[in-house]
Amino acid sequence: MPPPITDKVGHGKYLVTGKVECFSCHSPSFENTNIMEPEDAGFFSGGNAMPDMEGNIIVTRNLTPDKETGIGNWTQEEFIKTVKHGQRPNGQIVRYPMVLAWRSPTRRHRRFMLI
Predict the structure, then answer these.
(1) For labelling, which of 14, 16, 53, 74 has a CA lying 20 to 30 Å from the CA of 63?
(2) pTM (predicted TM-score)
(3) How far, in Å, CA of 7 to CA of 9, rounded?
């Protein structure tokens, strides 16, 4: 059962760890990701190697609030645009599999995901 919408932090955590599981790809390794306690070992720090559409190995992005290596300088609107439209603030298009990722969240849900 998800936390109430009034619990912005709890509901956002539910979305990114339970419903959408963003942490699975955006953690250092599929092998070491603990789905029962996802905040262990590199939670959202990226670095997970995975194939793109052509089979080339790509590395997942850091989604932490770190201003130098993560998305800490992004505005809420930039985050929402990236999740909804697949375009980063610098104009680059997100890579596979993000282009196929869950895009059905409402605007309100996308806001919670950034909190």
Answers:
(1) 53
(2) 0.76
(3) 6
